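thread from #wetlab-drylab

HS: before we spend reagent money on co-crystallization trials with cytidine-5'-monophosphate, can we at least see a predicted complex? here's what I'd submit
DV: go for it
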Amino acid sequence: MIPDYYFFDTFHGKRLHLGVTGSVAAYKALDLLRAFCRLEIQVGITLTHAATQFIAPLSCTSLGADPVHTTFFTSSSHFAHLEPASANAFLVAPATANILAKMAHGIADEILSCQLLGYAGPVLAAPAMNPRMWSASVTQENWQTLLRRGVWGIGPDCGQVACGDTGQGKMSGLDQIFIATLRALAPQDLAGLKIMLTVGPTQEYFDCARFWSNPSTGTMGAALAVAAALRGAEVTVVHGPVNITWPSFITTVPVVSAREMFAAAQDIFPTQDIGCFTAAVADFSPPVCSQGKFKKDGSPLTLTFEPNPDILATLSSAKKDYQRTIGFAAEVEDLHAHAQRKLKQKNLDLIVANAIGSPDSGFASMTNRVLLLDRFGREEQWPLLKKTEIAWRIWDWMGMNTP
Ligand code: C5P
């Protein structure tokens, strides 16, 4: 299952060529195709002869691939072997040991290897094979040759493969293949920047079984982190307890409480260019129960909460000249006034504010309606948008406003 926060509309109209080779994992290429089509990426496909034993060309056509190649010799084109040249990227998934060997040695004895030889753009490969075939020294040498030449390698993962053996050789998850492919298709305008994000809720335990928290799912922060990483930034995410699938090219630091988040962010932020603070940090923490767990004895439970450090305000007030910070504000009323006050009080470059209380924005929704104010006095109220779209536009905004 590919998560919704991986679907960025900006990829509409890009062209991808997908090569499918003869591994049992070939059936998964159909789900990948559907995911790319959901983004309105135009996908051409080439199936090797072995791949057609696992999936039918008609399945690819029916799901939206155009063209679908299986042979050099078609009635419609004499140049099928050169057709992918205009694609923005070429993905081989699953990639067998055989196609890796051909790619490494320039062998072009069937349609797919010939197309790969004639393709000059970014090539990605997601190997899938038995672990003994993967660890064979010849496969390893071929793989290293391909990586050295600039092929983007995805996996393979460790796990149980179709024949029952366990080890490295399993094709990576579709989410990782999908997001790595988008990265090859994305502009690299944030390359060279280090960006830290805080994401999700924090949990403040008051005994070993109970905590105080909020309903943040981390979706907005995840969309921002993924968008920045797709655009070439080196991204580190400090996140509370969330159920987010992170791309393998994002560094993650899991924490539980606000104080742990503060300690991690304090360590990381000094080396970063931008800090983006999306976390819904608990502002107070309860005292920790000394007896393990509070017992029910019929009397009320009274706890005195202590304020937590404001991570954003602390780090942003001490930031260096070249560092920039983005804050978020979820407000019930007076959105504009609160946003303006926090922009100044927390020494921010940009504040992104949203009203909470409606089901289509804020916590746990895939959409949001935000107001942006920056330190140059620019203000914009955006309409209801997908969080992925908001994330993409926020990075555009940061680029536009580089002093
Ligand atoms: O003051 P308020 O909690 O509304 O500010 C929200 C912003 O401050 C968010 O960007 C949030 O991540 C950050 N924040 C923080 N540490 C806290 C409270 C909020 O970093 N303890």
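DV: Residues 4-185 form a domain with the Rossmann fold fold (CATH 3.40.50.1950).
HS: ok that's useful, forwarding to the group
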